[in-house]
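Researcher: Good morning. I'm working through a list of sequences from a screen, and I'd like to move beyond sequence-only analysis. For each chain I'm collecting a predicted structure so we can compare shapes side by side. This is the next one on the list. No need for commentary yet; just the structure.
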Amino acid sequence: MKVIHLSVECFPVAKVGGLADVVGALPKYLNHLGVDASVVMPYFNRKFVQEHSFETVATGQFYQGSILMDYEVLKESTDALGFPLYLIRIPGLLDREEVYCYADEAEQWIAFQHAFLHYLKHNGIKPDIIHCHDHHVGLIPFLTRNATDYKEFSDIKTVFTVHNGQYQGWMNWNKGIILPAFDTWKWGLLDWDGVINPLATAIKCCDAYTTVSEGYLSELFVEANGLQRLFYDERGKAWGIVNGIDTAYWDPATDKQITDNYSPINVQEGKYENKSKFCKEYGLDPNLPLLSYIGRFATEKGADILPGIVRKLLDKVAGKLNIFILGSGDPAIQQEIAELEKEFPEGFAVFFGYNEQLAHQVYAASDMLIMPSRVEPCGLNQLYALKYGTIPVVRNIGGLKDTVIDVSEGGYGFKFEDVNATEASQAVERALDYLQEPKKLNETRDLAMELDFSWDKSASKYVELYNQLLK
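Model: Good morning. Structure tokens for this chain:
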């Protein structure tokens, strides 16, 4: 079975969020199960590309509207990621450093999808399944069936994974002239509320769509930024499959990015050693519990209530708790957090930006991780935290609802219901009280670290889905 994963992010080539982690791990685990899985993504002029060798395996040309575009397909020479990786490079369009934030994103992603199909056709490649990830490649299920030049792909099965239904890739109909020529009688499959909506198009046209947790699937039926009716109407081809984590990369027993390795056998000592060195670097007291946040400063992540959480906790339990924040994003939120750092010079530290090694060290050093998300399709941070014996304090939403069980129900985390600083800080205080009971804490950490959130289980569900489509 040949499966091509199509995505604009893939860790460690180019990462902005959890999409990259999924695409960087799932194909590897599928290959372990006997699937011939590979990844095709745009070329980004980043560290991974600069440090690895690539060979040109194909070149070609196509018209995007009236513009003739040249492209080349590059293959990573050593399969260093555990699967074949292909990059599509288009000079001036798909050869930049950043993944997002360009004014011509619509042109970028249309060109990427067109070049991909052109490459398949002119090199005699026909996979059994094209697995598309998020709206950036949402036109593929439509084009394989309705584009004039690619009718031979109409029997290829398409799977579309919704990593975040809030972002849909809307574009005005004036972009329709740069799409590959298609059967114009089918224009309605592209349209939603008067604009081209690639996410809606993918849900209408794909053979199956998946969400990254079962809880998120049910939530999309109720609220999906205007597409909830569509998700519900197409529920017969929906699968909720929770994301996994790459346990070869995220494992405190072997992780080379943390200062001291540990396992469930010596978790108490191991975490304290990591915390001591981390706190020394950031001016925190290693003898106090450490609460951390890792992620984007975005309202969907609940980052706008972070300042309120910090203030409530440090006003109430000052001298009994350290707080560390690692993230970047909304300038207003970032500015408010920067001002808090001045207001609370002790017990509070911040690193603005993203640093992969530092993230590993934060998971290893922290006692608790907070995730006050408004929207969380799956969430990976809570899974990383659990693997490192760090107790998650999360809002009861989406994938967090599916993967975190409150200690009051015999679980290993703490939940709260509403996105507000009061409820979130009260959940942290509950966790703080729990940390004062060493026997219970160690039992909970052992339980958390032994949980199986690996990709093995989730990948097998994708194989089941693929097999059903191919029968």
